[in-house]
Amino acid sequence: MKQSEFLIELDLVIDEAQTGLLATVDGSGRPHMRWMTPALLKDRPGAIYAVTSKNFAKREQLDKNPKVQWMFQSRSLNKIIYLDGTVNLVDNSSMRSEVLEVVGPRLRVFWNINTDETSLIVLETVMESGLLFLPMKGAREQVKF
Fold this sequence. Notes:
alpha+beta; Pnp Oxidase, Chain A; globular; 7-stranded antiparallel β-sheet
């Protein structure tokens, strides 16, 4: 599968589901998964973006180990996408604004948990490899970035 084809599928699934699972690893090697509100930015291919608080545990986990895995699924479960990558923590107001413009309307739950807008930081996941799984067809397509 070509990178461009994979990115089209990923964009479709994110647009439909509007959420994804992000897995990180803590200092003891224990995995942690949480629902996130991701976005692909059209002028920045090869990365997934999300926001979090500098005060959340995932930021500390990512400081120690930036390797992550994302999982996305269509509502009908006919497409499941896995994505491995490395996270950069971006503390930049213009990047924060750019990401919030896309995901902001979908962050209702996030704002209930984090009321301090000044603590926002952008998670930029640089894609390394991906897998598109079509369970109804038993098909798997892999891609490297």
